[in-house]
Write a structure and sequence with these properties.
Low-confidence stretches: none
Strand content: 25-35%
Keywords: Hydrolase, Magnesium, Manganese, Metal-binding
Mean pLDDT: 96
InterPro entries: Nudix_hydrolase, NUDIX_hydrolase-like_dom_sf, NUDIX_hydrolase_dom, NUDT19
Helix content: 10-25%
Shape: globular
Protein name: 8-oxo-dGTP pyrophosphatase MutT (NUDIX family)
Radius of gyration: 17 Å
Organism: Microbacterium resistens
Number of helices: 4
Cofactor: Mg(2+); Mn(2+)
């Protein structure tokens, strides 16, 4: 299946200001199914009710992100801002193209959906990355890279101010004896990359390392 034919999903990166900077809502999936035991942002596949005549794929994905946030954690977000779009590597199954959207915390108590969410917590990106590096919290590459970008922001306003051109990433994967290498547009190992250029995640043991030049 070509990238243009992939199923589509929408994910909400819900943010609030904490004592030391922005906090993001993360939830842990059950130990079965997609992303088993991983900590992810709320989200899921676009359903028929998310589609409107004449709407773009991105708009459909945004409606899915809004709906899934309400269903999975009980938060009714509004006006999601597109951040990135991820097409998974050919080796991954199932393959789903996923749009990530920034959203403000609408307030209210979290209500994790039984059977879909084991727990949901507000956490600073730095704390989440440190826990992953220590092996106590499981993240998948798109979540890790997004948290890495958020970790340098002073507050939520700064995150939204920095959101500009949507980052489109078609992932290329190479397995090594130590783990995996993930390459994106611009890297010398990606299609059309310039020799010596870097845009990759080095996931060969912990901690992971992001390189971009």
């Amino acid at each position: 299946m070509s990238d243009t034919e992939l199923p589509v999903a929408g994910t909400a990166v819900i943010l609030r200001d904490g004592a030391t900077g922005p906090e993001v809502l993360l939830m842990r999936r059950p130990d079965r199914g997609s992303f088993a035991s991983a900590w992810v942002f709320p989200g899921g596949k676009v359903e028929e009710g998310d589609r409107l005549p004449g709407a773009t794929e991105r708009d459909d994905a945004a409606r899915a992100a809004v709906r899934e946030s309400a269903e999975e954690v009980g938060l009714r977000i509004a006006d999601p801002v597109p951040l990135s779009c991820w097409s998974p590597p050919a080796e991954v199954r199932p393959r789903i193209r996923t749009w990530f959207f920034l959203a403000h915390d609408p307030g209210g108590a979290l209500a994790p959906s039984s059977g879909e969410v084991e727990e949901a917590v507000w956490m600073s990106p730095i704390t989440a990355l440190a826990a992953h590096a220590a092996g106590s919290l499981l993240l998948v590459p798109p979540t890790w890279v997004t948290l890495h970008a958020l970790s340098v922001a002073a507050d939520v306003d700064a995150v939204f101010a920095a959101a500009g051109e949507i980052e489109v990433r078609h992932t290329r994967l190479r397995r090594t004896e130590e783990g995996t290498m993930h390459y994106w547009e611009g890297d010398e190992e990606h299609d059309g990359g310039i020799v010596g250029a870097r845009h990759r995640l080095v996931a060969e043991g912990l901690p992971w390392r992001y390189e971009r030049s």
